[in-house]
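Contributing new records

If you add data, match the layout below exactly. Sequence lines come first and carry their own label; structure lines follow with theirs. Keep one chain per record. Anything else will be rejected by the validation script.
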Amino acid sequence: MTGTWSLPIHNKLKPPIMHSHATSHKAPKQPGFLPPRHRYGALVKKMNEQKPRISLSSVLAHEVRNPLTNIDLAIEMLSDSIYDNEQRLFVDIIKRASIRINGLITALVASDVPTEVHYGNQSVNQLLDKVLSMAEDRIRLKNISVTRAYTAIDCGIWMDKQQMEIALTNIIINAIDAMPINGGKLKLLTQSVNGLCLITIEDNGMGITKENLGNIFKPFFTRKSGGMGIGLSTTLEILRANQVRVDVKSEPGHGTRFLLSFERVGSAE
């Protein structure tokens, strides 16, 4: 039985309505004055602000980088003694994966520091090409054929490029994991319709049951062996933040299709 799931585009948040209150008859406080019951709390707060903190993500990043460095050193030593082209291909995949992990660790540590989100007019076709290149090794290892059917006139969409790369990568990786090692087919389609830019990502994998389809975006929900159930929940947050509508259609044994609808802002820059 075919199942569908949709997330509409959310309206922008409206500022809260401020209500007036009755005039207070309390005596005015002197500048810098704190009631006795608040003085200790203020002191602790000031000390905490001055004390350098080590976040959990920083600790995890440090611990992961140690074995990752060992892997890099071992691969470098191993690559000097490998002359078979097929074996060298796998060594190169490990190297690229290590570089990717190191980049993710750096991004994890940087996430502790508040940064501004950077929105801009981005090319849909270029965005998909970038995401496919990031998933290229996994596509090659599972011998999956990829079909791209892009709109002739590339359209631009207003989004945070880095966030959207993460969201689309999660969708494509889930599609790859749902397909067999041989015979998998991944299709990517872009269209410009009625002021919208549409991205379709479709696979011929195992599909999702109607009962599970409503849960795929819930944190920690997963049917994948060894999965954590974080990827698609993160994807949903990103899509909401970028005002993107998502529709998911799936049929067990036949595959899954994601349809993302962006507001078009003109031609890609």
